[in-house]
Amino acid sequence: MEILMPALVLGALGLLFGAGLAVASKKFAVEVNPAAEQIRESLPGANCGGCGFAGCDAYAAAVAEGRAPVNGCPVGGSKVAQIISQVMGVEVEETERMVARVACQGTFDKAKKKYLYEGLAECNAAALVSGGDKACKYGCLGLGSCVKACPFDAIHIGEGGIAQVDEEKCVACGNCVAACPKDIIQLIPASKLTMVACRAIEKGRAVRENCVIGCIACGKCEKNCKFDAIHIENNLPVIDYAKCTSCMVCREVCPTHAISANLEKRRQARIDADKCIGCTICKRNCAFGAIEGEVKQKHVVIPSECKGCGVCVSKCPKKAIELV
Question: Where is each 4Fe-4S ferredoxin-type domain found (predicted)?
Answer without folding.
Answer: 125-160, 161-190, 204-234, 235-264, 267-296, 297-324
